[in-house]
Write a structure and sequence with these properties.
alpha+beta, Glutaredoxin, seven-stranded mixed sheet, two-stranded antiparallel ribbon, 5 helices
């Protein structure tokens, strides 16, 4: 997993509106990139809504927010519209970006092993390096966790 001080990898992904976003375009900006497992599931919905509810405060701090999961753009559009998310969701269906950040991991649920997203948030500094990593995400109070480290 990437850690504090690591330079983030360059990547291009499709966002909620179907356009592409490049990580290289974030130079000079502070970005929150939160990886989550799946659209419209209980924990992921709580996390997205927590960030949504504090989005104005994050914006006042000059923070740009992106959620990222393996779901496709159509799924992101439905999830975003249903919960009125004011920030883009990025689609990583082949897990390439999740792997490069080190959050595509083996999980063990009820004795069954499978690969999936380790819910993790990266705060990226203006220099393109990881400023903070939140590995123990509190889905209901994730925005508060973010505001504490910013």
């Amino acid at each position: 997993m990437l850690k504090q001080g690591d330079k983030i990898p360059e990547f291009t992904l499709k966002q909620t509106d179907g356009t592409s976003v490049k990580s290289s375009a974030w130079k000079g900006q502070r970005v929150v990139l939160y990886f989550y497992p799946k659209d419209d599931t209980p924990g992921c919905t709580k996390e997205a809504c927590s960030i949504r509810d504090s989005y104005a405060r994050l914006g006042k701090e000059g923070i740009i927010v992106y959620g990222i999961s393996p779901d496709n753009v159509e799924s992101h559009q439905k999830f975003s519209a249903k919960y009125k998310l004011p920030f883009p969701l990025l689609s990583d269906p082949d897990h390439k970006v999740a792997k490069r950040f080190g959050v595509w991991v083996e999980k063990n649920m009820y004795g069954k092993k499978s690969m999936g997203i380790a819910r993790t948030t990266f705060v990226i500094g203006e220099d393109g390096k990881v400023a903070e990593v939140i590995a123990k995400v509190n889905t209901e109070a994730h925005a508060e966790q973010l505001l504490e480290v910013l």
